[in-house]
Amino acid sequence: MKRLFLAAAFVVGTLGAGVAAAQNYPVKPVRILIGLSPGGATDVITRIVAQRLTELWGQTVIVDNRPGATGMIAGELLTKAVPDGYTLMTGFQSGLAVAPALYGKAPYDTLKDFAPITLIGSTPLLMIVHPSFPPRTFREFVALAKKSGSTLTYGSGGIGSTPHMTGELLNALLGIRMNHVPYKGEGPAIADTVGGQIPIMFGNLPVALPHVQNGRLRALANTSVARSPLVPEVPTIAESGFKDFAIATWYGFLGPAGMPPDLVRRIQQDVAKVLNQPETRERLVAMGVDISANTPEQFAALLRAEIPRYAKVIKDANIKAE
Predict the structure, then answer these.
(1) What is d(CA 150, CA 129) in angstroms, rounded to the nearest whole number?
(2) Is residue 193 within 8 Å of residue 131, measured between CB atoms?
């Protein structure tokens, strides 16, 4: 009986400590890891949210870029952090869902080693082409791609990137074979598409949109489930007759496994609060971000769905890391 009493007291004490930690959080600076170099869309979005959290919390929120290995360097650092909420990470599908399957061995298990907090949002991709590319619509592209003897090439920001996965998903869906040309970042890929060295590219909307707006590239389709208000004239691939096709670049906050549920919920609520501030929302929407701010459970469900999806793409296309 005494042992049962002590065990119950320990559990109650632990739960009480977790609630107290959530109520008092944060009492010191918070660090957010990003497995990408500064300047990209994910980095910019994280810094916008970090600044708003700094104002809300009264504590400095530091963005710590740790690029390399498709985000796995940052992910490994997070697994070694104390699960007290003071080290978080902006994760994205290339690092969380693609890299483990692509490299065969990752320093973490996405579903076991992290505590999903909230999906910040997602951005669609645009299928962009050089102005000299004959097809004017996605349907015309499909007809050309399926034409006997047709060989098409598309570029992306690198092996395992969302644009790369988009091309491979289309190959599988349409039964075609576009050759992939990986670049070291979206910038060089865009430059070669503008220059006519490659005819097709799948680009994240914030990167691709300026080149569509100035007429140097044409957009054939949007890869998301709905048209973007920034380019309402560009139809989705689903609208073109392929209703099951939808892909976007997503990013969200995670902590190390073992974080108290009350603390996870507190951070999620605060992130949702800053994302719904009019000025923050306006800035992100102007960048093409579809804001989510969903629950930890919803973010975890997304991870469980995305991991096998990309593992299948990588296996079926026999994609190898280089």
Answers:
(1) 16
(2) no
Taking only the tens place, the pLDDT of each residue in 302-318 is 999 999 999 999 999 88
For residue 276, what is the DSSP state? T
117 with 200: CB under 8 angstroms?
no
Planar angle of CA 28, 33, 35, nearest 5 degrees: 175
Cα 36 from Cα 268, distance rounded (Å):
22
Q: How far apart are CA 249 and CA 205, in angstroms?
A: 9
Residue for token pair 């739960």: 15
Question: For residues 94 and 117, is the Cβ–Cβ distance under 8 A?
Answer: no
Q: Which residues of the chain have pLDDT under 50?
A: 11
Q: Which domains does the chain have, with CATH numbers?
A: 2-121+250-308 (3.40.190.150), 124-240 (3.40.190.10)
- Those residues with Cβ within 8 angstroms of residue 139's Cβ, 6 or more apart along the chain or in another chain: 240, 241
Q: At what angle do helices 41-57 and 278-286 cross, to 10 degrees?
A: 180
Encoding tokens for residue 207? 């990167």
pLDDT value of position 18? 58
Residue 105: Cβ-neighbour burial (10 angstroms; 0-12, 13-18, 19+):
exposed
Sequence-distant (6+) residues with CB within 8 A of 257 are 79, 83, 112, 113, 114, 115
Contacts 24+ apart (CB under 8 A), 242-247: 242/173, 242/174, 244/173, 245/169, 245/170, 245/173, 247/125, 247/162, 247/165, 247/166, 247/169, 247/223
Give dist(CA 275, CA 311) in Å, integer: 31
pLDDT in tens, 20-70: 678 899 999 999 999 988 888 889 999 999 999 999 999 999 999 999 888
